[in-house]
Amino acid sequence: MRTRLPEGFLWGLATSAYQIEGAPDADGKGPSIWDSFCKVPGNIRNGESGEVAIDHYRRYRSDVALMRDLGAQAYRFSISWPRIFPQGDGPPNPAGLDFYTRLVDELLAAGIRPLATLYHWDLPQSLEDRFGGWQARETAEAFARYAGFVARHLSDRVTDFFTINEFRSFVDMGYQGLEVAVGGRTVRIRLAPGLALDRKGLAQVRHNALLGHGLAVQAIRAEGRRDVQVGPAENVEVPVPAVATPANIVAARRALRHLNAPYLTAMLEGAYDAEWLKSEGEAAPQVEPGDMAAIGAPVDIVGLNIYRPSAYVVADDSPRGWRALRLNPSHPRMDSAWHLLDPEALHWGPRLVHEVWQPKSLLITEHGCAAKDAPGPDGEVHDTDRVMYLRAGMAALARAIEAGAPVHGCFFWSAFDNFEWTDGLQRRFGLVHVDFATQLRTPKLSARWFGASAAANAIL
């Protein structure tokens, strides 16, 4: 028996600007920190970059037509801040705005609902040079002005805006580097701008990024030309109860608040968790009057990027009431070394967020996996592992919805193979295969699964 989703559930696809657009200096666009970061030898596998990516800037019309043919009902894309404001602030670039105006019009003509993300890591290089990027409040304030400008010009057609994508990724890995266990060893992952701040400096970057989100929420509401929905899109840390006993579920709720204290907890509660602040000690951020009210500005939607469990937890007698279990080295993974496999993350993530914070609306703004995809002798890409991953995850999500989580859609990452940050072009997340040499697009088996499931509004 196939599992149906609630009526009106959105089946969507997602991308980000730097990963697909290419055209880094076309039509007045300014440089971003990713343009600069990719030029430093050793930062990106094989010395690759997003300079061309999948050339979406020039091919957006055919890409939209392809997404329409795949059955996409919605598309979450990001807007390149330096296309709109080449210096991060100051005079806007009309040609940059015109590109996204044309993209939105093309999506609407294809019957695809556009959802815009305002920041997916491509900070204008000028702001990094002048202020140290997110180290300074000036960047948060510039981001709010940019967000208001975009809302003023696009909100007559775009009703859903996400402020910032994955704070933890671009802050922790961009301004200090994050240690992760990969294949029995610990490696430090760095993203642009590739800095190594101390704990105090990193804490201030976190705070300024959160402030940017809050000020942007206010600006979008002030400048929007009609009622819009606005919120963050965060890679939520998901604690999975090792065994779903009542005590372990309570422990998982507590773990959720703790693991997400620097970001999601602060945004949804309008205050930093007291236990977390105490643990930061002298490294705690400087908070000015009014900051937390802005950071906690009410949101309409909360986007959750969910790929993997963060920890398996059980209840214990400690003051915090939970502990994380050591991960078994033989735990299965997808093609990316960091990507632990457990569909239950897509159940417990939205369920626990709902139970702890009661948000109005949830969207799964990213869910997907990398796989070793290549066309076979028949020219087709049979990504059976991705179909397994998506089907199992969606079944877990359906159970979360049945348990009361207000999840109204899922956006699969990614619509197309793309530039995958420090992995360059070597990790394929797309439902559509891209030959990077010829730019030929080939829908994979997972694209056919997506289209059939979307049409039926069921997990096939």
Q: How would you briefly describe this protein structure?
A:
The protein is an alpha/beta fold and 460 residues long. It is built from 16 helices and 17 strands. Helix content is 40%, strand content 17%.
Describe this structure as you would to a colleague:
The strands form five sheets. The protein has an eight-stranded parallel barrel, surrounded by five helices. The protein has 16 helices and 17 strands. It has one domain: TIM Barrel (Alpha-Beta Barrel), CATH 3.20.20. Helix 3 runs parallel beside helix 5 and helix 9 packs parallel to helix 11. It starts with a strand and ends with a strand. A hairpin with a 6-residue loop joins strand 11 and strand 12. The longest helix is centred in the middle third of the chain and has 25 residues. With 460 residues, it is of the alpha/beta class. The relative contact order is 0.14.
